[in-house]
Specification:
DNA repair, Endonuclease III, domain 1, 10% strand, 15 helices, two-stranded antiparallel ribbon, alpha+beta, four-stranded antiparallel beta sheet, 6 strands, single chain
Length: 309
């Protein structure tokens, strides 16, 4: 699931006057504090470097006096501008969400600007999700940084120093095995990304499908299962109901927050979220934002480093 972000006091609005919290809405697109493709600068600007269907592009979004202000550069600039409303959750409808628990209601009221972003880019969400399979987030973020710095390209326009656009599908498919190893990516995850890159046009078609159909398309690629497909469409589609299963922590968080059950598994989590059918992902995000997590009993898993093998 996406991590937690502290909202700024400013509350920019969409064109229709509805509030949008830029940190909460765009936060799931950031893959760690050192993500070359995402940056938050001291002036409150959110920078995002993307590989669009028209080529690389850089987008800057910030809260202005009259709402959200945005600029874009590069061959993909027009594409990014055209899809800015979707990115900021204009198509999302949190007003249709009906809280069924007191805790969910409280968080929902405290976070009126939480919207589910929709990037319309599948591979961009898929690759880092594959990197996050079965490893710590710190390991995955480190691999993402290393691969973008090695194989990406500088972000167009006046982007902050060090920002870069992820490689295209052809480049992902041609990364040699020793470079995956150097980036601390095991052979299984590397092979999954290579297979996905080789059929990237077919996967990008999924951006026009409804989320369940898109997930089925993604899961045709060996190595992509329910966890990865859910994490992908949550970002590419802004999917309010595609809750993540197979996660190490989420069932326990949901179980603890709603039923005091820290040992909840996927089945128990889905049962607890059943009253939110159609909005289960949103409900799970609100529970993550509540900060009500079970006390830790075991030590954190130590990050692995295959580069030393």
């Amino acid at each position: 699931m996406a991590g937690r972000f502290t909202p700024r006091p400013t509350r920019p609005t969409l064109a229709d006057g509805r509030p949008v919290d830029l940190r909460l809405t765009l936060g799931p697109l950031r893959r760690g504090p050192g993500d070359p493709a995402f940056r938050i600068t001291d002036d409150g600007s959110f920078w995002r470097a993307s590989r669009t269907p028209h080529g690389p592009g850089t987008l800057r979004v910030r809260a202005g006096d009259d709402g959200v202000e945005a600029d874009a550069w590069g061959p993909g600039a027009d594409w990014l501008r055209d899809r800015l409303p979707d990115l900021l959750g204009a198509a999302d409808d949190p007003a249709s969400f009906v809280p069924r628990h007191r805790l969910v209601l409280a968080v929902h009221r405290r976070r009126p600007g939480l919207r589910l972003t929709r990037t319309g880019l599948v591979l961009e969400s898929l690759v880092p999700s594959v990197l996050e399979q079965k490893v710590t987030t710190a390991e995955a973020y480190g691999s993402w940084r290393a691969l973008l710095r090695r194989y990406g390209e500088p972000a167009p326009g006046p982007a902050p120093e060090g920002m870069g656009v992820m490689p295209d599908a052809r480049t992902w498919a041609r990364i040699p095995s020793w470079e995956w190893h150097r980036a601390n990516v095991d052979g299984r995850r590397a092979a999954t990304i290579v297979r996905a890159a080789r059929v990237a046009p077919r996967l990008e078609e999924a951006a026009l499908m409804d989320p369940p159909a898109a997930r089925r398309r993604l899961e045709l690629v060996p190595g992509i299962g329910p966890w990865t497909s859910a994490e992908t469409v949550q970002r590419s589609h802004g999917a309010p109901d595609e809750v993540t299963t197979g996660d190490l922590h989420l069932p326990g968080i949901v179980g603890w927050a709603l039923a005091g059950d820290r040992a909840a598994d996927d089945a128990a989590m889905l049962e607890l979220l059943a009253p939110y059918a159609g909005q289960r992902h949103r409900a799970a995000r609100l529970l993550l934002l509540s900060g009500r997590v079970p006390p830790r009993r075991a030590p954190r898993r130590a990050p692995g480093d295959i580069t030393r093998l």
